[in-house]
Specification:
8 strands, 4-stranded parallel sheet, alpha/beta, 243 residues, Rossmann fold, binds zinc ion, single chain, 10 helices, globular, two-stranded antiparallel sheet
Length: 243
C-alpha cells in the first residue's frame, strides 16, 4: 500500500539509501555518481570483465582456461559503497536496496542492448540457484529477485525453476580456486524439462556478485550440455581481483 501511495507522489523526498540525505530517487545524484562503475576502468577482460592494470584483452585466468560463457555484463566493481548496498540487500533483507541495485543493472543493460545486435541478445534469464536450506534460512534468493526485476524491465522470461542447487556446498568464501571448482562440480542440476525449454536459446545467467567465475563456469557448462546456443553472465558487481 505504501509503495502505491508513494508512486502517486514520486516527488516526496525519501532518504537516500547510502547517505540519508533527502532524494527523489533511492540513491541521490551524488551517491550515484560515486558508485564504482566498471566502465570507469580502462582495461577489463572481454570475457569475465575483471578490471586489468595493463592494456590486454584477457585476464590470466581466462587465457589459461577459456570460460564456457561468452561474456559478462556487469554494472560495478564490488567496492565501497556498492558492497554496503549488496550486503544490506542480501543479509539484512533491505528490499529497497535490492530495487536500487536492480535499477543500476537495468540501466547498464539497456545501454549495452542499444549497442548489441538483437540476434546476439539473450532470450531468457536463469538466476543462479541457491540450495533450498539456505533459501529457507535467508527467506529469499537474491538472484531470483534480481532476475525478476530484470525480466520485467527488459521483457525477458525468467526460468527460476529449471535449475537447482542440489548439494549444500560449503560457502565459497575463503576457498582457493581449485577448492571452489571441486566444491561446485556436482552442485547443480537441470530439471528434465530444461533441454526442451532451453535448446538453441541464448541464455543469460543472473548472479549478484561474480568473484572467481567458478559458479558461473559450472552452470554454463551444464547449460551447454543441455544444448543452449550461448550463455552470458549478468551481475551487479565483479570483485576487482580474482582470488
Ligand atoms: Zn546519497
Ligand atoms: Zn577474464
Amino acid at each position: 500500500m505504501w509503495n502505491g501511495l508513494l508512486a502517486q507522489f514520486p516527488s516526496i523526498p525519501q532518504p537516500c539509501l547510502l547517505c540519508d540525505q533527502p532524494s527523489s530517487e533511492r540513491l541521490c545524484q551524488g551517491c550515484r555518481f560515486q558508485l564504482p562503475y566498471l566502465t570507469r576502468y580502462r582495461h577489463r577482460c572481454v570475457l569475465c570483465a575483471l578490471p586489468l592494470s595493463t592494456d590486454s584483452a584477457y585476464c590470466g585466468h581466462c587465457l589459461r582456461e577459456p570460460p564456457p560463457f561468452e561474456r559478462c555484463r556487469l554494472a560495478c566493481s564490488y567496492e565501497f559503497p556498492l558492497d554496503h548496498l549488496i550486503h544490506a540487500f542480501k543479509y539484512e533483507r533491505r528490499l529497497p536496496a535490492g530495487r536500487a541495485l536492480s535499477e543500476l543493472l537495468i540501466e547498464h543493460l539497456q545501454a549495452e542492448r542499444a549497442e548489441t545486435d538483437e540476434g546476439d541478445w539473450p532470450q531468457c534469464l536463469i538466476p543462479v540457484p541457491m540450495h533450498w536450506s539456505r533459501r529457507l534460512k535467508r527467506g529469499f534468493n537474491q538472484t531470483e529477485l534480481l532476475a525478476k526485476d530484470l525480466g520485467r524491465a527488459l521483457a525477458l522470461p525468467v526460468h527460476h525453476r529449471l535449475c537447482r542447487r542440489h548439494q549444500r556446498t560449503r560457502a565459497q568464501q575463503g576457498l582457493t580456486r581449485t577448492a571452489r571448482i571441486h566444491n561446485l562440480r556436482h552442485a547443480f542440476e537441470l530439471r528434465p524439462s530444461a533441454s526442451r525449454k532451453l535448446a538453441g536459446k541464448r541464455v543469460a545467467l543472473v548472479d549478484d556478485v561474480v568473484t572467481t567465475t567458478s559458479t558461473v563456469r559450472a552452470l554454463s557448462r551444464l547449460l551447454a550440455d543441455a544444448g543452449v546456443a550461448s550463455v552470458e553472465v549478468w551481475a551487479l558487481a565483479r570483485t576487482p581481483e580474482s582470488q
